[in-house]
Amino acid sequence: SGSAFERAELEDMICSISGEVPEEPVVSKRSGLIFEKRLIERHISDYAKCPVTGEPLTADDIVPIKTGNIVKPRSVQAASIPGMLGMFQIEWDALMLSNFSLEQQLHAARQELSHALYQHDAACRVIARLKKERDEARTLLAQAERQIPAHMAVPNGPNVAAVSNGKRVAEDGDIGPDGKRIRPGISSTIISELTECNGVLSQQRKKRVIPPTLAPVEALERYTQLTVNPLHRTNKPGILALDILYSKDIIATAGVDSNAVLFDRQSGQVVSTLSGHSKKVTSVKFVADSELVVTGSADKTVRVWQASEGGNYDCRSILKDHTAEVQAVTIHATNNYFASASLDGTWCFYELASGLCLSQVEDTSGSSGGFTSSAFHPDGLILGTGTSNALVKIWDVKSQTNVASFDGHSGAITAISFSENGYFLATAALDGVKLWDLRKLKSFRSFAPYDENTPTL
């Protein structure tokens, strides 16, 4: 029949590229070969020549062959069940080979990942070892810095600034079995110096008279504000402490902006800004008859500053013996020592020339909380401290023991001051001011001139 003839004719037309019966057959004018239209057009666009003969070939050399629209004959393999099973087997084998290849690639990827993780772990171990070596080196450096000023310090001398200028002089002593630092202690030589100072000042105290320049109460009532000096940054306003160097008429202020500012009272000009603390400065004190200033801060450190050429002050020592905010610093009458008080419940006694912590005294009673204020007695053998639990504690400097405690305030003790004759003590808290008789160890007068929201220095 005609359809059988057309099928036989179509089976004779085989694409020279694919080897199968073409759906859209075309013939080359040059070689007479038959191709699938889409395949030969793609080959011509890529290579511009015949895929069989290699002769130049263009799209114009291709002529379509018109054939009847008949169904493409089924392959011999798909014409029977055994043939189809053979095709399925071939596809299954190809799938298994592909799966095996993917498993090999997965295994290789796992090995690379394991190697990368091993390298990462090794790098972490190396970094940890380097950090440990760095910390050990820092510890050795701190010990060396501690030993240098301890042996080479000269009071108020130029070598002191050269050795410890801006350096850390903390972490004195070794660690004891209780986990605390072992301090060298207050030696008998220093105690003799303190006792001698006490004897001299006690004799002078008996001869003291009220200075005629002391303003009477009537004059205080007439006081008015004369000037306003904007010293600290306005984004963190607040002055927490101040001190006056009467010999030079210089005032130091401690600010919330983490700076201490020194300014000349007469001219109102800033002499120097002491920058270095990372948190608010809670206390500032001049060392009389010297070029030194001591500051305490909420960053747990105490800094000793020394005047340099040009009127600026450079940080000479950074003392890191406290573990909580330093609330107060106070200078001893000898001007060779000072003490700091902290919320960690300890006060430290320092040698000013070397920055060495000679003794760190802890309040073991457990009833005082942390220290919030401190001041030396004018004669130098007694230290007064105020606590966050409204207690006032009196300490013997020579033995570093608590010899008296006063209670009666409400709230933390914000300020403490001994009278010039050494007989009385004034303390301030949120509930007001109390006066204490140190001879009778009791309060004899209280003042409440402000409410609980009024800050005190």
From TrEMBL:
<keyword id="KW-0539">Nucleus</keyword>
<keyword id="KW-0808">Transferase</keyword>
<comment type="pathway">
    <text>Protein modification; protein ubiquitination.</text>
</comment>
<protein>
    <recommendedName>
        <fullName>Pre-mRNA-processing factor 19</fullName>
        <ecNumber>2.3.2.27</ecNumber>
    </recommendedName>
</protein>
<feature type="repeat" description="WD">
    <location>
        <begin position="274"/>
        <end position="306"/>
    </location>
</feature>
<dbReference type="Pfam" id="PF04564">
    <property type="entry name" value="U-box"/>
</dbReference>
<dbReference type="InterPro" id="IPR001680">
    <property type="entry name" value="WD40_rpt"/>
</dbReference>
<feature type="repeat" description="WD">
    <location>
        <begin position="406"/>
        <end position="446"/>
    </location>
</feature>
<dbReference type="Pfam" id="PF08606">
    <property type="entry name" value="Prp19"/>
</dbReference>
<dbReference type="GO" id="GO:0006281">
    <property type="term" value="P:DNA repair"/>
</dbReference>
<comment type="function">
    <text>Ubiquitin-protein ligase which is mainly involved pre-mRNA splicing and DNA repair. Required for pre-mRNA splicing as component of the spliceosome.</text>
</comment>
<dbReference type="GO" id="GO:0061630">
    <property type="term" value="F:ubiquitin protein ligase activity"/>
</dbReference>
<dbReference type="GO" id="GO:0005737">
    <property type="term" value="C:cytoplasm"/>
</dbReference>
<dbReference type="InterPro" id="IPR013915">
    <property type="entry name" value="Prp19_cc"/>
</dbReference>
<keyword id="KW-0747">Spliceosome</keyword>
<dbReference type="InterPro" id="IPR013083">
    <property type="entry name" value="Znf_RING/FYVE/PHD"/>
</dbReference>
<feature type="domain" description="U-box">
    <location>
        <begin position="8"/>
        <end position="82"/>
    </location>
</feature>
<dbReference type="InterPro" id="IPR055340">
    <property type="entry name" value="RING-Ubox_PRP19"/>
</dbReference>
<keyword id="KW-0677">Repeat</keyword>
<comment type="similarity">
    <text>Belongs to the WD repeat PRP19 family.</text>
</comment>
<dbReference type="Pfam" id="PF00400">
    <property type="entry name" value="WD40"/>
</dbReference>
<keyword id="KW-0227">DNA damage</keyword>
<keyword id="KW-0507">mRNA processing</keyword>
<keyword id="KW-0853">WD repeat</keyword>
<dbReference type="InterPro" id="IPR038959">
    <property type="entry name" value="Prp19"/>
</dbReference>
<dbReference type="GO" id="GO:0000398">
    <property type="term" value="P:mRNA splicing, via spliceosome"/>
</dbReference>
<keyword id="KW-0234">DNA repair</keyword>
<keyword id="KW-0833">Ubl conjugation pathway</keyword>
<dbReference type="InterPro" id="IPR019775">
    <property type="entry name" value="WD40_repeat_CS"/>
</dbReference>
<keyword id="KW-0508">mRNA splicing</keyword>
<dbReference type="InterPro" id="IPR036322">
    <property type="entry name" value="WD40_repeat_dom_sf"/>
</dbReference>
<dbReference type="InterPro" id="IPR003613">
    <property type="entry name" value="Ubox_domain"/>
</dbReference>
<dbReference type="GO" id="GO:0070534">
    <property type="term" value="P:protein K63-linked ubiquitination"/>
</dbReference>
<feature type="repeat" description="WD">
    <location>
        <begin position="364"/>
        <end position="405"/>
    </location>
</feature>
<dbReference type="GO" id="GO:0000974">
    <property type="term" value="C:Prp19 complex"/>
</dbReference>
<dbReference type="GO" id="GO:0071006">
    <property type="term" value="C:U2-type catalytic step 1 spliceosome"/>
</dbReference>
<comment type="subunit">
    <text>Homotetramer.</text>
</comment>
<dbReference type="InterPro" id="IPR015943">
    <property type="entry name" value="WD40/YVTN_repeat-like_dom_sf"/>
</dbReference>
